[in-house]
Amino acid sequence: MKRAHSPGRRWSAPSLPARHYAAWSVLVLGCALVAGHAQSTAPKKVSASQASANSSAGKQTFESICAPCHGLNGRGGERAPDIAMKRSIVRMPDAQLLKVLQEGKPQAGMPAFGALGPEKLAELLRYLRLLQGKRDSAAIVTADAEHGKALYAGKAGCGECHMVNGRGGFLGPDLSDYGANHSAGDIRHSILSADSRPALHKTLARITTKEGQQVSGLVRNEDNFSLQLQSLDGAFHLLEKNDVAELTWDPLPIMPGDYGAKLSQEELNQLVAYLASLTEAKP
Amino acid sequence: MTDRLTARLLCLFVASLVLLAPARLCSQGLNPATIAQPPADSWPSYHGDYSGRRHSRLTQITPQNVGSLTLAWAFQTRQSAELKSSPLLVNGILYFTVPDHVWAVDARSGAQIWHYTYPPNKGLHIGHRGVAMYKEWLYFLSPDGHLVSLDAKDGSVRWDVVVADVNQGYWTTMSPLVVRDHVIIGVSGDFDNLVGYLRSLDPVTGKTQWQWNATPPLGTPNSTTGGMTWMTGTYDPDLKLLYWGTGNPTPVLNGKTRPGDNPYTCSIVALNPDTGKLAWGFSASPHDTHDWDAVETPVLVDADFHGEPRKMLMQASRNGYFFVLDRTNGKSLLTVPYGPVNWSLGIDKDGRPIPNPDKEPAPDGRLIAPDEAGLTNYRAPSFDPRTGLFIVSAHPSWSIYFAKPADGAYGWAGADYDVWGKGVIEAIDYQTGKIRWTHEIGDDAQGGVLTTDSGLVFTGDEPGNILALDTNNGKTLWHAGSGATMKSSPITYELDGRQYVVTGSGGVLFAWRLPE
Description:
- The complex is a heterodimer.
- By secondary structure, chain A is α+β, with helices and mostly antiparallel strands.
- Chain A folds into 3 domains: 7-17 and 197-253, SH3 type barrels; 31-43 and 138-194 and 257-277, Cytochrome c-like domain (Cytochrome Bc1 Complex, Chain D, domain 2); 48-135, Orthogonal Bundle (Cytochrome Bc1 Complex, Chain D, domain 2), CATH 1.10.760.
- Helices cover 37% and strands 14% of the residues of chain A.
- In chain A, the strands form 2 sheets. In chain A, strands 6-5-4-3-7 form a 5-stranded antiparallel sheet, with no helix packed on it. In chain A, strands 1-2 form a two-stranded antiparallel ribbon.
- The radius of gyration of chain A is 22 Å and the shape is globular.
- Chain A starts with 17 loop residues before the first helix and ends in a 6-residue tail after the last helix.
- Chain B is mainly beta.
- Chain B has one domain: Methanol Dehydrogenase, Chain A (8 Propeller).
- In chain B, the strands form 11 sheets. In chain B, strands 1-34-35-36-37 form a 5-stranded mixed sheet, with no helix packed on it. A 4-stranded antiparallel sheet of chain B has the order 2-40-39-38, with no helix packed on it. Chain B has a 4-stranded antiparallel sheet with strand order 3-4-5-6.
- The longest helix of chain B is centred in the first third of the chain and has 19 residues, at 2-20.
- The chains are: A alpha+beta, B mainly beta.
């Protein structure tokens, strides 16, 4: 099915729920809600040279035995899955990951690499952790994460859409362990460039059914026959495409693209420091 | 032990029923002569018959009534491996596989008759295409290169012979082809520089009858290795020729140590099934450096080509080209791309694509269409004789290929990264190569295609829907969500006057039929 892009038939008044307007006004007006947290967390530092020394031997082993199936960057291929980005693998504790390296996954076709010995396996694991983005994020983020936390909940409005440990909105991805899988550079880039790579499923879809009902929200899943949409009030709308008269997409993603202008450099660093500190989901 | 006992008791029970209800016969074997002309109540070989067309004469399910198609039964393998096999159907029993496992299941009810498990082993468990049958015996290739002959009645092992050395880097996944008194097997393995081969074994004793090597012996200077034979070929009983596709050369992404066309890698070959002697070979990808096996089904069609009656062979190849050959001599009739292809300089006088040296993997990367998985792959295409359409599940795609000196000249010898791709069912007019219709199926293409004489195409889409399309125009007539992408190829048969369509996705086999 082709997506309809007929500007002439777009609605004049988008039916955004009131709650959404409220969220937007927080962002647009930039309410100065920076709470006065006096305590700042002590900056964590990891020696960059130490990290690279550990990893160079692991890199060699990885590229000779893992890369043929998992790819040079560990992001997978036809023969083996992504082990650099896949959350279930990134989240695995070291001991569990080591066990997989030692024993392999015979049913999935992965050989055992126990014969490499504990030292080589440890190097391999360190390198894999590097590929997973667990590198120097703490080392380059020395800004005040507590202020970042306040920005997150207040002025930046991140919490309107993103959840951390059970608190926050539902539209965006859960960020409870975002720092575990992303470097500070990646985090900064994601905040500043939300609108530079619009993805369809991150933009607001507006639907008119053949019965004239209008609904807008995020498309959570879609195939040739059906569409599962979540409107901004959280309700799910499970639609058959046969019942849809028109489907249009907003040109820009829901996540604001103007953080570079809204936040000062110092505030941005604080926000990045806070997000980088989120390394473990707390149930 | 208990399972085995249960299986034997069950077969005894079924055997006792035979006396009461002769119509419900337990497995009583397969005469190899029927593989060439399978009756409607059978699917006795991987492709259903020797032609590889995967076209059924059955017409009970039609474009008019397919909308009411419903589930007859579902069978859970309870394994983590996905179904990538085509079942056989012989005497009312389906036989199908995942790596290390074979099942016999009642085709009317989906009830398990027996389940055979191969011992744990270190072969690559990448997928499995199914078993072959000769009289009362099944033939199963294990991940570690054994050919195991099972008793079709209870799944017990009759013999087990090694056909490929797992320690050298071979593995086996394919469904053997039975031609008269030959069981023909192929091998896999391109993480090492190895010789690909086809081997024929005696169905009774398991003794080797002949072996045909795709590439010269290891260590031949300036020569290639590879040419794995990992998909099931086809056979023309009149011409007495076996047709087989061969895989890529090795080292895979580095072609420098293997100058020239690298015969017979990425080729379609015709062999004498009694001797293994080569009748002719056609190079689909001379000097391949992108892992584009030409193992896709060599589909045999007898029809007019530009007004002349021809015995043809058609292949939609992984490298992006659709080939029509005269299968009596291997001469090209048509070579045309069926999707984005940017790696060739055109077609030579013999109908072979000319590889562009500038598109070989390089240290700074090369943007290549299609990607490494190819414009199609092991999933089966289908030829519909009514419309003259060759229908293939295609994957228009781009990727970046790297090879640098440090990658060496052994095994993979480089790296490739997918950039973008999508899935499209394409209906190709075999006379011209023009695409008559397309049907988008999502971000990827994985499922095979079956056509029937009533004008239906059965296949699957990427989100996991099983689809029935109108062969004339590709429009959807029926769909059912199966919960996983179909990575196998559908089959159909008729039992007790009712037509079944069997599809497999995830670890579940589904049987569909019209309501009573």
